[in-house]
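Bench notes, afternoon.
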Amino acid sequence: MAFGFAFEKALEVLNASRFGIPIPDVFKKYFPQDFQTQSVAYQKSKYHYSLIQGSISFLATFLFWILGGFGWLSAEISQLFTNEIIRTLVFFGALGAASGLVSLPFTYYFHFVIEEKYGFNKMTLKTFIGDQIKSGLLAILLGGGLIALVVWVYQAAPEKFWWLVWLLMSVIMIFLTAFYAQLIVPLFNKQTKLEDGELRTAIQGFAKKAGFSLAHIFVMDGSKRSSKANAYFTGLGSKKRIVLYDTLIHDLETKEIVAVLAHEVGHYQHRHTLYNIVLGILQTGFMLFVLSLFIAPDSQIGLAVNRVVAQDPRLMQTHFYLGLIGFGIVYSPVSTILGILMNMLSRSFEYQADAFAAKHTRAEDLKTALVKLSKNSRSQLSPHPFYVFVYYSHPTLLQRFKELS
């Protein structure tokens, strides 16, 4: 835990050393002189926020563990409930609620102080509270449902645990990928079909030229929360759709929007969505297999981790979620490595999607669109290469420019 925290913060410090680098020459005709000053101020604010928030979160978790908090919570729950599923749900529900309460002031500060200061926040307090309530209920329904399912399968068939849960979770992942826009997004945002007009005509012209069937184009009211713009592709088969933020339509010219949309279509044409689903399923299977080694009653790995993690004897009475805690701690570096590999793959996908957009629209239109998106979000133009390597799912603007030139 300490190493993971130190590694993360060291990377942030390393990246912060690049804040003052001048705007690269290739961008000087695109960005005004005052952009660098505004961008550095915004990046520094986020950097200081992350240092404080991350440090407090780490210390709270670490102290709760070392001072026997997990054991105390386990003992209290064991006195109240006898059913293992209910015990596990209450245990992780209590931890989730405590974590949410600790992070809530930081989330509020980020949106209503930092984002507000730089003109990004468009949320009202009512929207913010509503989002927190909805997110909490989703966590209870989806997260709680998955945890209950995992415990039930473990009790019913411990020797087949990992691959049965893998099968069930794979079905759930595919279902959510296909119906995310219809089931989850409407809880937070309105999506309306793009009206007839210049933009729709231009998009249909592109779709015909690219030989791509694009019947579902939606506009989402992203401006109710932020001035930052975005677009994304979601769904599978007949459920696929392109979603454009209303801020994107406001900030970009028609030809630039078409170029951004072409980029999103490029992801679909190159089957990136399918690849990501398959890789996600494989990662889930590997994770569940490793988890099974921690929670199996006769597992040498589980017993060894239990001796290390369970400094409080009260925690030893609850083998299952003790195994989950040990797994969560030990699996963290594995998750980091897998995350780096997935980001490397994701960056290659972005290059392919850019190439598709440049082929079917104009590379210059995509470049100016990317510039406007970076300008409007005050993004860092010269992040540290190692920070990019570890955390960036997209290439930097400079890297994308070089590929599009």
